[in-house]
Design goal:
Pfam families: TENA_THI-4. This protein is mainly alpha-helical. Helix content is 77%, strand content 0%. Helix 1 packs parallel to helix 3.
């Protein structure tokens, strides 16, 4: 890792991530309404607050620095498909099914953050991102969610759906990162 990620790809990624997090926070709020206890519900609400305090703040910093107005941006095709999937399962799926759709995002970011944190980057913007996801505080929240999913009771039918949802969300994570690197857009403008 030498910091050679094209800055235009990083900018595109930040825009897409900022758009993604708006729907991701909605999915977490829907999931919190299905929580088995007040403690779990409150933990999810805390995650939504953290998104607002930490991740939104990070994106706002970058967008302001680059002169990008988020409200003028459109979701990439993969981002739109991914968030539609998350919201659909959060709304209509069981609690375990919904948890399985959000876990890959947390887990992937923790893993990548930790890998990059060890090496750092000569690029200031990249280091700012790395420090957000490579730290112990973020890891603590992810490990809580992993423990929750590991210990949740589910029917045999739910277990199949949980596995499928987890796999699909993980694939969407890969596609999201790849799409951002390639700066993929719809062939036609979607916003009117």
């Amino acid at each position: 890792m030498d910091g050679s990620l094209p800055m235009d790809s990083f900018k595109f990624y930040i825009v897409q991530d900022a758009l993604y997090l708006k729907d991701f926070a909605k999915a977490i709020l829907l999931i919190s309404s299905k929580a088995r206890s007040e403690e779990e519900r409150d933990a999810f609400l805390s995650h939504v607050i953290n998104i607002s305090k930490v991740e939104d703040k990070l994106h706002t910093f970058f967008l302001k620095r680059w002169g990008i107005r988020l409200e003028e941006q459109e979701m990439s095709p993969v981002n739109k498909a991914y968030t539609t999937f998350l919201l659909s399962v959060a709304y209509s799926g069981s609690y375990p099914e919904a948890l399985s759709t959000i876990l890959p995002c947390y887990w992937v970011y923790m893993h990548i953050g930790k890998l990059l944190y060890k090496k750092g980057s000569p690029v200031e913007e990249y280091n700012r991102w790395i420090s957000t996801y490579g730290g112990k505080e973020y890891e603590k929240g992810v490990k809580w969610l992993i423990g929750l999913v590991d210990n949740i009771e589910a029917s045999r039918l739910e277990e199949t759906k949980i596995t499928e949802n987890f796999r699909l969300a993980t694939i969407y994570e890969y596609l999201f990162w790849d799409s951002a690197f390639r700066r993929e857009t719809f062939p036609f403008r979607v916003k009117i």
